[in-house]
Amino acid sequence: MTVEASTGSFAEPGANWYDIVDGTGTLTISSSGTVNMRVPGVYTLTYTKVDAHNNTASISRSITVIDTTRPTLTLVWASSIGVYINTVYTDPGATRIDIVDGTGTIATYSGTVNTWALGTYTFQYRKTDTAWNISAIIARTIIVSTPPSAGGGSSGGGSSFSSVSPTPIVMSSTGTTLLQTVSPNIASGSVILAIDISKNKYKTAIEAMIQKWYIQNTKRFYPNRTITRSEFLKLLVQAYGYTGPVNVAKKFADIPNSGNLGLYVYFGVAKGWINTKNMNFRPNDIITQAEINKLISVVKWTATADTIVSSSFGVTRAQAVYTIVQSFDFQ
Length: 331
Hints:
The chain has five helices and 14 strands. The chain is of the alpha+beta class. The longest helix is centred in the last third of the chain and has 13 residues, at 289-301.
C-alpha cells in the first residue's frame, strides 16, 4: 500500500487470522517492523499468529511512503517594505515548512532592488524540497522613496527637522524618523524595517508606534539608547494628537519659536504639561523614568505641571515607547 508522508503516525490496518480450531480474529499491530511517516521509503510490516497448539503463520505487508506535498512559505515581516533612496536594504527573507524537510529560512528566488533609484521592486521566493515538490511563489514589494527635505529649526544630537507637513521629521543622528501625521507616502500596511528590535522585550510596543506611523524606521531604531527630553516630548505629542502651532507668552531661551522643535515644546507648554519657570528647556538632556511618569500623569490626569529637571539616570528609547503605548492603550 502507498501512503502520503505526514507528521502523524501510520494508521495500522492490521491483519485477520483464521484457525480451524481457534476460530477467527484480528491482529491490530504487526509483530515486526515500523513505518516512519516523515521519511519516504519502502517499509515492511510482518504479522505473526501462533495458535493454541503452537502452530505459527506469518504474512507481510509492504508500505511505500511518498512525498507529493509542496513546501509552505511565509514572509518574514511585511509583504511591502519601504526604504529611503541611497540606503542599504537587507531583505529579511522567508521561512519554509515542509513535512519531510522540516523548517528553515530561504533567500529570494528572483528579483533585485536598486536603492539608488526610486521605484517599486519585487522579490519572489520559491522552494523546491528534496522530493522535487515546488512551493507556490510568494512575493514582497520594496518601495524606494525619497526622504523628506531637511530644514527649519534643529534639536540637539545632530537632528534636523522638516517643515510642518504630513511627512516624517528626520532624525539623522539615529536613523529614526518621527511622523507628524498618519499620511505616509507608502502603501498601506507597509513597514520600514528595523533590524535591531526583533529580540527587544518592548518589540510589540515599538511596532505599535510604527503601525500608528508615529515612528518610521529606516534601518535601525537603536532601542537601547537613552532618549532625550526633546525626543520623548515629540513622541508624547504624537500619541496625544498634535493639532497645530500655538502661541505662548513666555519662551525658553534654548528653544526657538520657529522650526518643529519649538512647535512640539510650546504645544506642551500651551497644554499645561510643562512650564517655562526655568529659562532653558535643555532639549538634549536625557530624561528619567520619574520625569516621564510625571509628564504622562500631567497629560492623562491633568496633574500640576512642573519644571522638568534633568538627571543623569536615563531611560532607553524602547522603555519610553513602551510607557507611551501602555499609557495610551495602543495595543
